[in-house]
């Protein structure tokens, strides 16, 4: 775990963050006492990958024989 003074952190914060690897911790000190901890986080992707075709194959185990038959409530509209 690396340490820097608060003055160094203020002067070079963008560069310090760019050099850190995800999960790395940096302790910021003031008067040789730790005052803060900086941790680089893992970048997140904005969109999850779309699953490929056939992912749900075999998951439907039963389908009623009249699955696609008109509903009783809709018969008057079908005439």
Largest sheet: 3 strands, mixed
Record the strand order, biggest sheet. Answer: 1-2-3
Strand content: 15-25%
CATH topology of the domain at 1-42: YefM-like fold
Specify the overall morphology: rod-shaped
Highest-level CATH class of the domain at 1-42: Alpha Beta
Low-confidence spans? none
Q: Name the average pLDDT.
A: 86
- The helix-and-strand class reads alpha+beta
In the CATH hierarchy, what is the superfamily of the domain at 1-42?
A: YefM-like domain
Helix content: 10-25%
Spatial extent as radius of gyration:
30 Å
Q: Secondary-structure element order, as H and E?
A: EHEEH
CATH architecture descriptor of the domain at 1-42: 3-Layer(aba) Sandwich
Number of strands: 3
Distance between the termini: 77 Å
Please report the number of helical segments.
Answer: 2
InterPro entries: Antitoxin_Phd/YefM, phD-YefM_TA_antitoxins, YefM-like_sf
Function: Antitoxin component of a type II toxin-antitoxin (TA) system.
Family: Belongs to the phD/YefM antitoxin family.
Protein name: Antitoxin
């Amino acid at each position: 775990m690396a340490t820097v003074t608060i003055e160094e952190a203020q002067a070079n914060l963008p560069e310090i963050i760019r050099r850190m690897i995800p999960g790395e911790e940096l302790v910021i000190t003031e008067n040789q006492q730790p005052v803060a901890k900086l941790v680089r986080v893992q970048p997140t992707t904005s969109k999850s990958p779309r699953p490929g075709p056939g992912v749900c194959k075999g998951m439907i185990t039963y389908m009623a024989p009249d699955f696609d038959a008109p509903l009783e409530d809709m018969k008057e509209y079908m005439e």
